[in-house]
Amino acid sequence: MGKNLLDQLKDVTVVVSDTGDINSIEKFKPRDATTNPSLIAAAAAMPAYAKLVDDALVWARKETKGGGTEDVVKRAIDRLSVEFGLKILEIVPGRVSTEVDARLSYDVEGSLAKARSLIAMYEGAGIKKERILIKLAASWEGIKAAEILEKEGIHCNLTLLFGMHQAVACADAKVTLISPFVGRILDWYKKSTGKESYAPAEDPGVKNVTEIFNYYKKYDHKTEVMGASFRNIGEITELAGCDLLTIAPSLLAELEKSTDELPKKLDAAKAKAMDIPKIAMDEAAFRKAHEVDRMANDKLDEGVKGFTKAIEGLEKQLGERLASL
15, 100, 203, 258 — which has fewest CB within 10 A? Predict the structure, then answer.
């Protein structure tokens, strides 16, 4: 019997698990894992993680010296993010992405302070910063914060990335990794065109990641490309050969069930030979490009608001839990 799609994919692409659920990570054995407030909120609601949540709240109450609920909860979320990260790092051999509060997406100094605080917590637990990716939104401010952090040896994962201007700015800033959101790009095009479906090769999100991947390889950018936010396995198989792909457990299970042949679609060597013009990027060019790229503009704004709503929901969840302790 031939290899399943997931095993074939692992031969050409680093598979990352897009979940905060430890059991799923143990089952699918990805190299890396990524979390966000929505995933942590879902995990925190599971009985299996109740003690982890309570311990984080008790710790935060001591750290803030009996501060108000808001202060305790904010500190507890940082602790919980790191605790989930630590548990994940016991399973995966590679890295875990830990997210900076989305409300800091347009605040360079705030992002820097939060990132350094998270890294200090990991280091305090004995984890070297090489195993952590700090996740920031790919706003101009987020990219500038990442540029500073990278110079300090703190590796970054730039998320909510939809446009080539964002990708070029990230490469110029020498960030470690970017996460273009394949499925969210598809969502935007389906809504704006009224078209109900796209063949995998014509999927706008797939085409976006392919374009970025080829540009990076053409110009020897070291920034890794990690396709994210998938809606179906067709999007995933069409990006076989991408540096990394972060995939939800439900789609990992689907890949595992299929033994179809998986051809490699993205190839760094082939990209080197392509005729791709170099793009110059500074703040003025970035803001102009972002203004005219309606999809990237809409989806970045929507994504920041969505991540903000998720962290506010997690704060409410933990506030209620704190009151019952």
Answer: 258
